[in-house]
Hints:
Layout: E1 27-31, H1 32-36, E2 42-46, E3 51-66, E4 69-81, E5 87-90, E6 97-103, H2 117-122, E7 125-129, H3 134-151, H4 157-185, H5 187-203, H6 210-216, H7 221-232, H8 236-254, H9 259-265, H10 271-282, H11 286-297
Antiparallel strand pairs: 1-6, 2-5, 3-4, 3-5, 3-6, 4-7
Amino acid sequence: MSRVQSQLIPQFALYGESNLSQQPSLVHIEDIADRSRANNWLIKPHRHTRLFQILLLINGSLQVKLEDQQHQLQGNWVVSIPPGWVHGFEFPADTQGMVLSVAAALLQAPPQQFQGLASLLEQAHTVSFAEQDVLFAQFKNYLYLIRQELKQPSTGHETMLTWQIGALFMTLWRQVQYSTAQMHQNPKSIQVFQQFRQTLELHYREHWDVQTYAKTLHLSVSSLNRLCQEKAGNSAKGLIQERVLLEAKRRLIYTQEPLERIAESLGFKDPAYFSRFFKNLAGTPPSDYRKAKYIEMGTS
């Protein structure tokens, strides 16, 4: 879809909300699921004329459309979307992450100006993070702080939000710079790691061993492990187990399926072995994990 056709694209304040006369100081944050679940996990192409948006994907997968480009993302990613950019998303059910919307006018204020901000405001970015990255932890923490400030505003509320948003954007810009440098140094390794992530997403239920993944990617086991340590701070086996565990947690929290059904759907022939696998990695049996999360979420 070209820029020439953009007038045909729906314009929203927030997706599905047609009021374009929002407050110039708008800051809004929500979980991906808050809006996407009600839309069957599909956010059709649209644009915001006055909002800058940042989407954080946490250890998941996402198909994103930015103007006429399609991106298939796996892992931990941030998508930044300047005002006026056509974008749409398709998520797997129960995708984890957050979406921050900030009025563009706020980003023009002097406290927010820094070298590189213009690039973020003019161009959409898809930025990957390794799980163990310090910048990834910082980025998530700033989003949590912004959410807390919006929930419980106190003295200096607007100033605090300004500082937090500025820190968030600076952290994103640092990761953009880091990713660009890494790409120039070794672009092939990044491409191969993404291929591993995509292959893992397709086959984690089949319990492929590391050797099978390595063979599929035309790598040795040692090369694949070295690549995973470099890009994600974990071994290939550890990333495989983490992906299975993540899916198990999602099903325990968001479905009423019995443990036997969950175990079977994840490729475990023996429910008892699934329970041992889960406890070894999560530190608690799956039934106890489900009960604790239900209590935490206020469900029964």
